[in-house]
Design a protein that fits this description.
Elements: H1 8-25, H2 27-30, E1 34-42, E2 47-56, E3 62-71, H3 75-92, H4 105-123
Antiparallel strand pairs: 1-2, 2-3
Length: 126
């Protein structure tokens, strides 16, 4: 096998494989650091605890990647409310404006309180 006899196709294959291996080797260097924080708010039947994971973008804004919810409210109202709010926050990424869920005002307020606390804790982390 002589390198002089390689055509353009062979050189392109070698180049793409090399770039792929380099990207794989430096993958961890370019991943954003994930910050975690916990917040607690007062729901209808008890506390609402959120575990929030987010990373900071270059412009110092946050991007929420995961929210875990623990609550003492009923699954029919509080559970549905929390699921809707988690989906809404992750989809819109609007951290300052959280819409309330009709019929679950106390749960919505507790979620907002817990989320705000968690986001403030993430903003203060280095």
């Amino acid at each position: 096998m002589n390198f002089k006899n390689f055509g353009i196709r062979e050189w392109l294959v070698i180049a793409f494989i090399s770039i792929g291996l380099l990207a794989f080797a430096f993958e961890d260097k370019f991943k954003p650091k994930i910050y975690e924080a916990e917040g607690t708010g007062i729901g209808y039947n008890g506390d609402i605890t959120l575990k929030v994971k987010a990373y900071k973008k270059k412009d110092k804004s946050l991007r929420v990647t995961e929210i875990q919810v623990e609550h003492g409210d009923t699954d029919v109202i509080g559970g549905v409310c929390c699921t809707k709010l988690v989906d809404d926050v992750k989809a819109r990424q609007r951290l300052d404006k959280i819409d309330m869920v009709a019929g679950a005002t106390f749960t919505s307020e507790g979620f907002k309180e817990a989320f705000t606390e968690a986001i403030e804790n993430i903003k203060n982390q280095e």
